[in-house]
Design goal:
The chain is mainly β. It has one domain: Calycin beta-barrel core domain (Lipocalin), CATH 2.40.128. It is built from one helix and ten strands, in the order H-E-E-E-E-E-E-E-E-E-E. The mean pLDDT is 90.
């Protein structure tokens, strides 16, 4: 399997509900849930992600589609209330997606250390500095 599409193929082999915990300087501690489903006859993955905490309840919701773009690189199309519409992130290295457009320098890091485990992190900067990790969730596939 080519390295360019490895993340997509690995996700498609382990679809289901992932749950775990997260933390970060921007978010503080939270519980996370991501539902990974196959779409387009196995040519795309849908990632439905949410983060909650005891104090505020539902804190963040995303609906994303991971698929192979026209240029042969993976693209992650992300919709969230915090974004100005759907934002396209393109894969720069396996599991490292950089915003193609948008007001912030942003990156999403999607790591799959072992089957049934994933790490999902948002990096950004509100100024001219390089993006840094603002929050990360470590999740495990539930039975």
């Amino acid at each position: 399997m080519p390295a360019e599409t490895e993340v997509l193929h690995r996700l498609l082999r382990t679809t289901g509900v992932y749950r775990g915990r997260g933390d970060g300087p921007e978010s503080g501690p939270f519980l996370a849930r991501m539902v990974v489903t196959s779409a387009l006859d196995g040519r795309a993955a849908i990632l439905d992600y949410e983060a909650t905490n005891d104090r505020d309840g539902l804190r963040h919701v995303e609906h994303s589609i991971l698929l192979l773009g026209g240029d042969g690189r993976l693209e992650l199309h992300v919709a969230s209330l915090e974004l100005p519409g759907v934002v396209r992130f393109t894969q720069q290295a396996p599991g490292r997606f950089t915003a193609y457009e948008g007001p912030l320098l942003a990156r999403i890091v999607l790591d799959l250390p072992r089957p049934g485990q994933l790490s999902y992190a948002w990096w950004w900067s509100r100024d001219e500095r390089a993006p840094r990790e603002q929050y990360r969730a470590d999740l495990h596939l539930t039975g």
